[in-house]
Write a structure and sequence with these properties.
With about 210 residues, the protein is an alpha+beta fold. The protein contains 2 helices and 12 strands; from the N terminus they run αββββββββββββα. Strand 6 and strand 7 form a beta hairpin. It is a single-pass type I membrane protein.
Length: about 210
């Protein structure tokens, strides 16, 4: 049934490593490998495990309930648990200490919740180890932004000049129309046309 399917999704266990699944670390530094999990019905005797390249177990922990913090079952000596499960987020992140180039690879955070009929879920994060952090050269970006900004500025200036020129032309044309009306009236008067002053002159005396 569709309704039951929606409920099943709502109660599903989910594991996340954040917005991005890639991490870069400097050689001989410590690096945080983030991981959190969510479950709508809670958890009991939950088991979480971190694997390196899918096979090597580097951290194994258990959590009795929401009221207790995880306890260690087994770990690699260079791995330290830095999460907490009694707070708002069920954080099961770890820190890998003194990373080496050989530590680069895939790290999988795996969670199993017996309270959800042993529902299991995992998330993967990829670690890259570098000798030194390369500063991003923003020169090209700044040039592009400057050129685009300049073009927009010129466009606005052009539009303003265009409006001023059109305004001046309109005013000039209005002035010419007034002159034409005025000169037309003068012509009528001089030529003695209807409505002119010529009609208003008294007839010459005999």
């Amino acid at each position: 049934l569709p309704g039951l399917h929606v409920v099943a999704i709502a109660f599903a266990l989910e594991v996340s490593v954040g917005k991005t699944n890639t991490v870069m670390a400097l050689n001989n530094s410590d690096v945080l490998l983030p991981c959190t999990f969510t479950t709508c019905i809670g958890f009991q005797d939950l088991v979480f495990t971190w694997y390196f390249n899918s096979t090597e177990l580097i951290y194994h922990g258990k959590i009795k309930s929401k009221a207790s913090e995880p306890f260690l079952v087994g770990r690699n000596p260079r791995v330290e648990f830095v999460g907490s499960t009694t707070g708002k987020d069920n954080n099961i992140s770890i820190v890998l200490k003194n990373v080496e180039f050989s530590d680069a690879g895939k790290y999988t955070c795996h969670v199993k919740n017996p309270k959800e009929k042993n529902a299991q879920h995992n998330a993967t994060i990829f670690l890259t180890v570098v000798q030194k952090m390369v500063e991003t050269d923003n020169t090209v970006t700044l040039i592009i932004v400057g050129v685009v900004g300049g073009l927009i500025g010129l466009l606005i200036l052009f539009m303003l000049i265009k409006r001023v020129v059109l305004f001046i032309i309109k005013k000039t044309q209005d002035g010419k129309k007034e002159c034409l009306v005025s000169s037309s009236g003068n012509d009528n008067t001089e030529n003695g046309l209807a409505g002119s002053k010529a009609e208003q002159k008294a007839p010459p005396k005999a």
